[in-house]
Protein backbone atom coordinates (compact mmCIF):
# COMPACT_ATOMS: atom_id res chain seq x y z
CA UNK A 1 0.00 0.00 0.00
CA UNK A 2 2.77 2.45 0.93
CA UNK A 3 4.68 1.76 -2.30
CA UNK A 4 1.53 2.12 -4.41
CA UNK A 5 0.66 5.49 -2.83
CA UNK A 6 4.24 6.75 -3.15
CA UNK A 7 4.38 5.90 -6.84
CA UNK A 8 0.88 7.23 -7.59
CA UNK A 9 1.81 10.57 -6.00
CA UNK A 10 5.09 10.70 -7.93
CA UNK A 11 7.17 11.18 -4.80
CA UNK A 12 10.95 11.54 -5.25
CA UNK A 13 12.17 13.71 -2.40
CA UNK A 14 9.51 12.29 -0.06
CA UNK A 15 8.30 8.87 0.97
CA UNK A 16 5.29 7.26 2.66
CA UNK A 17 6.25 6.08 6.15
CA UNK A 18 2.92 4.82 7.43
CA UNK A 19 -0.70 4.20 6.40
CA UNK A 20 -3.36 4.05 9.11
CA UNK A 21 -6.95 2.90 8.70
CA UNK A 22 -9.47 4.79 10.80
CA UNK A 23 -12.61 2.74 10.69
CA UNK A 24 -14.73 5.28 12.56
CA UNK A 25 -14.04 7.91 9.89
CA UNK A 26 -13.90 5.45 6.99
CA UNK A 27 -10.52 6.92 6.03
CA UNK A 28 -6.96 5.93 5.23
CA UNK A 29 -4.45 8.37 6.73
CA UNK A 30 -1.14 8.48 4.86
CA UNK A 31 1.91 9.89 6.67
CA UNK A 32 4.59 11.39 4.43
CA UNK A 33 8.19 12.28 5.35
CA UNK A 34 11.08 13.96 3.54
CA UNK A 35 14.05 11.95 2.34
CA UNK A 36 17.01 13.72 3.89
CA UNK A 37 19.43 13.20 0.98
CA UNK A 38 17.10 14.62 -1.69
CA UNK A 39 16.95 18.28 -2.70
CA UNK A 40 13.70 20.20 -2.14
CA UNK A 41 12.34 22.97 -4.35
CA UNK A 42 11.21 26.49 -3.53
CA UNK A 43 7.44 26.76 -3.21
CA UNK A 44 7.47 30.16 -4.89
CA UNK A 45 9.68 29.83 -7.99
CA UNK A 46 10.35 26.08 -8.17
CA UNK A 47 14.16 26.32 -8.12
CA UNK A 48 16.16 23.76 -6.18
CA UNK A 49 16.78 25.06 -2.68
CA UNK A 50 20.40 25.36 -1.57
CA UNK A 51 19.58 24.22 1.97
CA UNK A 52 16.73 23.28 4.28
CA UNK A 53 15.94 25.35 7.37
CA UNK A 54 15.93 23.51 10.73
CA UNK A 55 12.35 24.52 11.54
CA UNK A 56 9.28 23.10 9.79
CA UNK A 57 5.75 24.27 9.30
CA UNK A 58 2.99 22.65 11.39
CA UNK A 59 1.46 19.43 10.14
CA UNK A 60 -1.02 19.87 7.30
CA UNK A 61 -3.57 17.55 5.69
CA UNK A 62 -4.60 17.07 2.07
CA UNK A 63 -7.50 15.08 0.64
CA UNK A 64 -6.64 12.63 -2.14
CA UNK A 65 -8.78 10.46 -4.41
CA UNK A 66 -10.70 7.87 -2.42
CA UNK A 67 -9.76 4.18 -2.48
CA UNK A 68 -12.96 2.23 -2.84
CA UNK A 69 -15.15 3.37 0.11
CA UNK A 70 -12.23 4.88 2.05
CA UNK A 71 -11.37 8.55 2.03
CA UNK A 72 -7.62 9.15 1.68
CA UNK A 73 -5.87 11.90 3.62
CA UNK A 74 -2.19 12.86 3.43
CA UNK A 75 -0.40 14.19 6.51
CA UNK A 76 2.90 16.06 6.25
CA UNK A 77 4.79 18.88 7.98
CA UNK A 78 6.30 21.01 5.15
CA UNK A 79 9.91 22.10 5.41
CA UNK A 80 11.22 25.61 5.06
CA UNK A 81 13.94 26.06 2.48
CA UNK A 82 16.45 28.74 1.55
CA UNK A 83 16.05 29.77 -2.09
CA UNK A 84 18.78 31.85 -3.77
CA UNK A 85 16.09 33.87 -5.54
CA UNK A 86 13.21 34.12 -3.03
CA UNK A 87 14.88 33.73 0.36
CA UNK A 88 13.19 31.69 3.08
CA UNK A 89 10.11 29.91 1.70
CA UNK A 90 8.00 26.82 2.27
CA UNK A 91 9.00 23.90 0.01
CA UNK A 92 7.08 23.04 -3.15
CA UNK A 93 4.97 19.92 -2.72
CA UNK A 94 4.74 17.47 -5.66
CA UNK A 95 1.20 16.39 -4.83
CA UNK A 96 -0.62 19.73 -4.37
CA UNK A 97 -0.53 23.40 -5.32
CA UNK A 98 0.33 26.16 -2.89
CA UNK A 99 -2.43 26.83 -0.33
CA UNK A 100 -4.55 23.96 -1.68
CA UNK A 101 -5.91 21.25 0.60
CA UNK A 102 -6.55 18.67 -2.13
CA UNK A 103 -4.08 16.76 -4.29
CA UNK A 104 -3.57 17.29 -8.02
CA UNK A 105 -5.32 13.99 -8.77
CA UNK A 106 -8.43 14.91 -6.79
CA UNK A 107 -8.50 18.43 -8.22
CA UNK A 108 -8.41 17.06 -11.80
CA UNK A 109 -11.23 14.61 -11.06
CA UNK A 110 -13.37 17.37 -9.49
CA UNK A 111 -12.75 19.78 -12.38
CA UNK A 112 -13.68 17.13 -14.97
CA UNK A 113 -16.93 16.15 -13.22
CA UNK A 114 -17.84 19.82 -12.65
CA UNK A 115 -18.06 20.21 -16.44
CA UNK A 116 -21.19 18.02 -16.51
CA UNK A 117 -22.69 18.29 -13.01
CA UNK A 118 -23.60 21.16 -10.70
CA UNK A 119 -21.15 21.95 -7.88
CA UNK A 120 -23.39 20.61 -5.11
CA UNK A 121 -23.60 17.21 -6.82
CA UNK A 122 -19.84 17.16 -7.37
CA UNK A 123 -19.25 18.06 -3.73
CA UNK A 124 -21.56 15.26 -2.58
CA UNK A 125 -19.88 12.73 -4.89
CA UNK A 126 -16.37 13.46 -3.59
CA UNK A 127 -17.55 14.25 -0.04
CA UNK A 128 -16.17 17.78 -0.18
CA UNK A 129 -17.47 21.20 0.77
CA UNK A 130 -19.01 23.00 -2.23
CA UNK A 131 -16.67 25.95 -1.56
CA UNK A 132 -13.74 23.59 -2.10
CA UNK A 133 -15.27 22.59 -5.43
CA UNK A 134 -15.67 26.26 -6.33
CA UNK A 135 -12.00 26.95 -5.56
CA UNK A 136 -10.87 23.95 -7.61
CA UNK A 137 -12.95 24.99 -10.63
CA UNK A 138 -11.68 28.57 -10.40
CA UNK A 139 -8.10 27.32 -10.25
CA UNK A 140 -8.64 25.05 -13.26
CA UNK A 141 -10.09 27.92 -15.30
CA UNK A 142 -7.23 30.28 -14.38
CA UNK A 143 -4.69 27.60 -15.28
CA UNK A 144 -6.40 27.01 -18.61
CA UNK A 145 -6.47 30.72 -19.42
CA UNK A 146 -2.78 31.07 -18.57
CA UNK A 147 -1.74 28.07 -20.70
CA UNK A 148 -4.07 28.23 -23.69
CA UNK A 149 -2.45 28.54 -27.08
CA UNK A 150 -3.64 31.49 -29.11
CA UNK A 151 -4.47 31.11 -32.76
CA UNK A 152 -5.59 33.95 -35.04
CA UNK A 153 -9.23 34.97 -34.68
CA UNK A 154 -11.05 35.36 -37.97
CA UNK A 155 -14.76 34.77 -37.19
CA UNK A 156 -16.18 35.81 -33.82
CA UNK A 157 -19.65 35.89 -32.29
CA UNK A 158 -20.87 38.38 -29.68
CA UNK A 159 -23.97 37.67 -27.62
CA UNK A 160 -25.52 38.47 -24.25
CA UNK A 161 -26.58 35.89 -21.67
CA UNK A 162 -29.03 36.66 -18.85
CA UNK A 163 -27.37 35.70 -15.56
CA UNK A 164 -30.29 36.51 -13.24
CA UNK A 165 -33.64 38.28 -13.18
CA UNK A 166 -33.80 42.05 -13.48
CA UNK A 167 -32.02 42.49 -16.81
CA UNK A 168 -28.58 41.54 -15.54
CA UNK A 169 -26.44 40.26 -18.39
CA UNK A 170 -23.06 38.86 -19.33
CA UNK A 171 -21.47 39.55 -22.71
CA UNK A 172 -19.92 36.42 -24.23
CA UNK A 173 -17.50 36.46 -27.16
CA UNK A 174 -16.92 33.24 -29.13
CA UNK A 175 -14.33 31.99 -31.59
CA UNK A 176 -16.78 30.55 -34.13
CA UNK A 177 -14.08 28.78 -36.15
CA UNK A 178 -13.15 26.61 -33.15
CA UNK A 179 -16.45 26.64 -31.20
CA UNK A 180 -15.05 28.01 -27.97
CA UNK A 181 -15.59 30.94 -25.61
CA UNK A 182 -12.73 33.44 -25.61
CA UNK A 183 -14.01 36.19 -23.31
CA UNK A 184 -16.82 36.90 -20.82
CA UNK A 185 -17.63 40.33 -19.40
CA UNK A 186 -20.17 41.70 -16.95
CA UNK A 187 -23.10 43.67 -18.45
CA UNK A 188 -23.62 44.58 -22.12
CA UNK A 189 -22.65 48.23 -22.09
CA UNK A 190 -20.19 50.36 -24.01
CA UNK A 191 -17.75 49.99 -21.10
CA UNK A 192 -18.05 46.20 -21.39
CA UNK A 193 -17.08 46.26 -25.05
CA UNK A 194 -14.24 48.68 -24.35
CA UNK A 195 -12.84 46.21 -21.80
CA UNK A 196 -13.04 43.43 -24.38
CA UNK A 197 -11.20 45.32 -27.09
CA UNK A 198 -8.58 46.52 -24.61
CA UNK A 199 -8.02 42.89 -23.64
CA UNK A 200 -8.01 41.77 -27.29
CA UNK A 201 -5.46 44.32 -28.43
CA UNK A 202 -5.15 45.98 -31.85
CA UNK A 203 -2.94 43.27 -33.37
CA UNK A 204 -5.40 40.41 -32.82
CA UNK A 205 -8.31 42.70 -33.73
CA UNK A 206 -6.88 43.31 -37.21
CA UNK A 207 -7.14 39.59 -38.05
CA UNK A 208 -10.93 39.46 -37.47
CA UNK A 209 -12.86 39.36 -40.75
CA UNK A 210 -16.43 38.49 -39.69
CA UNK A 211 -18.52 39.28 -36.61
CA UNK A 212 -21.87 37.61 -35.91
CA UNK A 213 -24.09 39.42 -33.41
CA UNK A 214 -27.62 40.62 -32.81
CA UNK A 215 -28.84 44.16 -33.49
CA UNK A 216 -27.93 45.57 -30.06
CA UNK A 217 -26.62 49.07 -30.82
CA UNK A 218 -23.78 48.85 -28.29
CA UNK A 219 -22.29 45.81 -30.04
CA UNK A 220 -22.70 47.34 -33.49
CA UNK A 221 -21.06 50.63 -32.48
CA UNK A 222 -18.14 48.80 -30.87
CA UNK A 223 -17.58 46.60 -33.92
CA UNK A 224 -17.73 49.54 -36.32
CA UNK A 225 -15.26 51.49 -34.14
CA UNK A 226 -12.71 48.76 -33.41
CA UNK A 227 -13.19 46.38 -36.37
CA UNK A 228 -13.87 48.59 -39.40
CA UNK A 229 -12.56 45.86 -41.72
CA UNK A 230 -15.01 43.21 -40.46
CA UNK A 231 -18.25 42.11 -42.11
CA UNK A 232 -21.21 42.07 -39.68
CA UNK A 233 -23.59 39.12 -39.91
CA UNK A 234 -26.94 39.32 -38.08
CA UNK A 235 -28.40 36.12 -36.72
CA UNK A 236 -31.48 34.79 -38.47
CA UNK A 237 -33.74 35.03 -35.41
CA UNK A 238 -33.45 38.80 -35.15
CA UNK A 239 -33.79 39.33 -38.86
CA UNK A 240 -37.02 37.30 -38.89
CA UNK A 241 -38.31 39.12 -35.83
Structural description of this entry:
The chain has about 240 residues and is an alpha/beta fold. It has three domains: about 1-95, no CATH class; about 100-150; about 155-240, Nucleotidyltransferase, domain 5 (2-Layer Sandwich), CATH 3.30.420.10. Helix content is about 30%, strand content about 35%. It contains eight helices and twelve strands. It has a five-stranded mixed beta sheet with strand order 10-9-8-11-12. It has a four-stranded mixed beta sheet with strand order 1-2-5-4. A hairpin with a 3-residue loop joins β6 (about 80-85) and β7. α2 packs across α4, α3 packs across α4 (about 130-145) and α5 (about 190-200) runs parallel beside α7. It is elongated, with a radius of gyration of 24 Å. The N and C termini lie far apart (about 65 Å).
Regions with pLDDT < 50 over 5+ consecutive residues? none
Secondary structure tally, helices? 8
How are strands sequenced across the largest beta sheet? 10-9-8-11-12
Order of helices and strands: HEEEEEEEHHHEEEHHEHEH
Q: Helix amount, in percent? A: 25-40%
Distance between the first and last residues' Cα: 65 Å
Tally of individual domains: 3
Averaged pLDDT, please? Answer: 93
**Rough shape?**
elongated
The rounded Rg comes to 24 Å
What is the strand and helix layout of this fold?
Blueprint: H1 2-9, E1 14-22, E2 27-34, E3 51-56, E4 60-67, E5 70-76, E6 79-83, E7 87-90, H2 104-113, H3 119-126, H4 130-147, E8 155-164, E9 168-175, E10 180-186, H5 190-200, H6 202-205, E11 210-213, H7 217-226, E12 231-234, H8 236-240
Parallel strand pairs: 2-5, 8-11, 11-12
Antiparallel strand pairs: 1-2, 3-6, 4-5, 6-7, 8-9, 9-10
Amino acid sequence: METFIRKSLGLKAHTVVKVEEREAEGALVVYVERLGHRRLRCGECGLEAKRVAPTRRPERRWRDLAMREHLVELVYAPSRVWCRRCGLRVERLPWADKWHRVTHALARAVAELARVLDWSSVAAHFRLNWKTVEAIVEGAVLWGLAHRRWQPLHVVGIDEVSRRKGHQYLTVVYDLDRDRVIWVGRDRTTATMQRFFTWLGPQRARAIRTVCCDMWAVYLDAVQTHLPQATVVFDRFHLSQ
